[in-house]
């Protein structure tokens, strides 16, 4: 079939590749400009405890594009990673998230909220990452013990020693860690006990499966069990409906997020949401809770 396509087939393929490369290059140029202009916004997805009270939020970046409107991070984070622009973008994200966190500390209703921030592998591996986080904390006055960094399994595969060392030095500052998209990567379970983690976040694909099949349910059940055995909070992601929520609560879920509780909200919509749902105020007894 490939032969039958002949020169035209090859030619077409080349053109398409060229078009892809052009689109990429344009996107990269756009991204650079957007960074200079700060055309980004953070949305915050509330996280709930088992009683429906807000324990914290996850910051999720959006690109405010002049022509395309709000662009999903799924579309530009990979390009930012490839081009290295993620380092600069990540700094901006952390700064904004820490500013929000510091502002919350001023009011007793919000002072206990945690802020989770996604960190790309490339950002984390940057030699000045720890310093930069420290600078941002100093500059904003945010409480490091309210900050959680979400890392993915890709970091565990390569240079595990270096990863642990960096995590340890950030933990010295009081910062906590969550392992994001748990179960979708290739990391070995043995890393779980070596890493200074507080949370594992079950990827939403597993939550979806859990309510659809017995084996799917068994997997999620085992992850909760594993979390309990290792003293880690298991956060359920992508809880979209009552069936999902019933399932995770039945298996001892202490913390979840998803459209059923709330979509990611713009800054302006947060106060009303918090006022409606209440922020968990009780001090958690077990270490590693959603809001320790
Ligand atoms: P993630 O960290 O796993 O974030 C969860 C994603 O699931 C978010 O998508 C969120 O909006 C979406 N979500 C939340 N609840 C539900 C639900 O009930 N159903 C469904 N179907 N989806 C739900 P979003 O905001 O598009 O972000 C996608 C990914 O992009 C994130 O996955 C994260 O890996 C990356 N990302 C987002 N913001 C940042 C950031 O500030 N920095 C970095 N490095 N990566 C980010
Ligand atoms: Mg995340
Ligand atoms: Mg995730
Ligand atoms: Mg992710």
UniProtKB/TrEMBL annotation:
Superkingdom of the source species: Bacteria
EAL domain sequence ranges: 24-278
Protein name, UniProt field: Bifunctional diguanylate cyclase/phosphodiesterase
Full-sequence portion shown in this chain: 636 to 927 of 953
């Amino acid at each position: 079939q490939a032969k039958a396509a002949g020169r035209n087939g090859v030619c077409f393929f080349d053109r398409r590749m060229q078009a892809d490369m052009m689109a990429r290059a344009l996107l990269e140029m756009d991204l650079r400009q957007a960074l200079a202009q700060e055309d980004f916004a953070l949305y915050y997805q509330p996280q709930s405890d088992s009683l429906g009270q807000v324990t914290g939020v996850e910051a999720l970046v959006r690109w405010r594009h002049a022509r395309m409107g709000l662009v999903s991070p799924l579309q530009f984070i990979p390009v930012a990673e490839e081009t290295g622009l993620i380092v600069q973008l990540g700094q901006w994200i952390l700064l904004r998230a820490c500013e929000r966190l510091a502002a919350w500390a001023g009011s007793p209703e919000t002072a206990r909220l945690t802020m989770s921030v996604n960190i790309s592998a490339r950002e984390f591996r940057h030699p000045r990452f720890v310093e930069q986080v420290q600078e941002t904390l100093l500059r904003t006055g945010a409480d490091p013990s309210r900050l959680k960094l979400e890392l993915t399994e890709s970091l565990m595969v390569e240079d595990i020693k270096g990863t642990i060392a960096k995590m340890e030095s950030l933990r010295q500052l009081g910062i906590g860690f969550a392992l994001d998209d748990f179960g979708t990567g290739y990391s070995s379970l043995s890393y779980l006990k070596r890493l200074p983690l507080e949370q594992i976040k079950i990827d939403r694909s597993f939550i979806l499966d859990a309510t659809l099949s017995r084996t799917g349910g068994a997997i999620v059940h085992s992850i909760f069990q594993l979390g309990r055995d290792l003293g880690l909070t298991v956060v359920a992601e992508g809880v979209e409906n009552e069936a999902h929520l019933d399932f995770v609560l039945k298996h001892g879920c202490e913390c979840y997020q998803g459209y059923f509780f709330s979509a990611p909200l713009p800054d302006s919509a947060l106060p009303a949401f918090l006022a409606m749902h209440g922020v968990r105020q009780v001090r958690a007894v077990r270490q590693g809770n959603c809001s320790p």
